[in-house]
Write a structure and sequence with these properties.
alpha+beta, elongated, binds zinc ion
Length: 97
């Protein structure tokens, strides 16, 4: 069974004629805000963001670099918040292990 449009964005309520246009909208929907965790050393930042693959992959790539530290991660998440990629940051909790 195929489902025909309109397709509604569950985050902002906009409707689209095709699934394809809904999918491309989702990557830019200003209301879409999902938690993503970024951890380094003893700190974990929970960032509420529209998790665009390009942005999340870039942060994860930095996290894999051996010389990348907690302070730099703080700089990165603050930058992402400043330019609107991250809507809200839950500040670090000390990792239990
Ligand atoms: Zn939307």
């Amino acid at each position: 069974m195929t489902v025909d449009g309109p397709y509604t964005c569950k985050y902002c309520g906009r409707t689209f004629k095709s699934l394809q246009s809904l999918k491309s909208h989702l990557q830019n929907c200003p209301k879409r805000s999902l938690p993503r965790e970024f951890s380094k050393g003893k700190v974990t930042f929970i960032c509420y963001m529209n998790p665009r693959r390009k942005v999340v992959n870039a942060v994860n790539s930095l996290l894999r670099k051996p010389d990348f530290n907690e302070q730099q991660l703080l700089g990165v998440v603050r930058y992402l918040q400043e330019n609107g990629e991250v809507h809200r940051i839950l500040m670090p909790e000390i990792n239990k292990n």
